[in-house]
Model the fold of this input.
Amino acid sequence: MSSFPVLLVEDKDSLRVMLRHALEAQGHVVLEAHDEPEAVQHLRQSRPAVVLTDLKLPSGDGFGVLRAAKELDPELQVVVMTAYGSIQDAVTAMKEGAMDFLAKPVDPEHLLLMVERAIAQRRMLAEYMLLKEELAARRGAPRIIGEDPQLRQVSQQLHRAAATDATVLLQGESGTGKELFARALHVLSPRADGPFVAINCAAIPETLLETELFGHEKGAFTGAATRKPGRFEMAHRGTLFLDEIGDLSLGLQSKILRALEEKQFERVGGTVSLHVDTRVVAATNRNLKASVAAHQFREDLYFRLSVFPITIPPLRERPGDLPILARHFVERFCRDLKKTTLKLSPASLDELSAYRWPGNVRELQNCIERAVILCDGDTIQPRHLSLSFRSPAKGERAEHQDPQEGPVASPPDPWAQIDLSGTMNEVVRRVTTAVERRKVAQALRDAGGNRERAAEVLQISYKALLQKLREHGVEA
Done:
């Protein structure tokens, strides 16, 4: 029997039963749905490899099924079925990502051939990904740990972007591993044999950053005793990683825009234009759309950088990956410190799961390294994790006594952080805007980026949600 389930979405019972029997006779596992909500539920729970959906459904439609499937997995193969008189709708569906369409009445043999072709494409894609990962591993690509669906989707996006020369913008909170993803993208790309050059735009003073990026000529300024190449030159025929690009000054932003668009620049103090073949990957933990709206970031540079945006989910949104990452770090640090591999006690795993990890994977890595150093037995216990500073869970006392660390301060009063300056109307408007922005962002995260589901949760129209996203600069 095939290990690739097929989701069949059709409201007419007689046709659905006939198609199901035809598919099952060929060894396929068939999941059935009669409308869009039921189909979306199957998509989330069962992860089918192929979707067959009618465009006309009693609740929702095939376009909604198609969009939900593509949001869950961009590589998911979708075949739409439609009446002969609605072929234009099927063509529209293919423009939105459907693999093909079937005109009713459906020929079972044609259907089976199409399903076999879809599954073959799925299998070939999986094998291609495995081969690329194997090649990347041999070249020393960073290993991305995790099994969360969001992370798998990021990995698929990374593979697709790596095959092109497009500028990539990696977005995510501090500590999510943006440089790790940038290095993986470089190794997976045709530029893998070229240099990977990284620079943190926030870690270098603005007066020095221009020379670090573009280099300088001898005598360009006091102390410039020799000519120095910049990072753009050093990354020729390779990849330049611009970390924390949201911290760039407006003056430097214009120079980077020119370097991206024209592939040329001048060194500081120079007059000769230098041409380079450099692929740029940028990263930020800021909301660049909001920075553009506040006139702190150039809109044209934002659009030039975000040709292929990839958002890396924070660790708190990948709870299933936390024990996998924790055990990986335990093994790694035990190996580095030449210690017998330690175990994580159930209580310590509970502690790790209860913590919110504002510093994301980087904070978890530091926590585990400290625990491995402190542990003098064969099992890491909660006391080795030093997570006593975490916010208390509901029902706990705001302040408690740790036997080793002493009293732990209560978390700050959130009301003390609210700006109460101005009139009553100004304060209410300011607070309401902040709450609305957080609520919209949270609903979008909880819906896995699906805007239609987020609108349902918020109980507002889809159009109203789009307006809120634009108003607050919230990104899907």
Q: What stands out?
A: The longest helix spans residues 108-139.
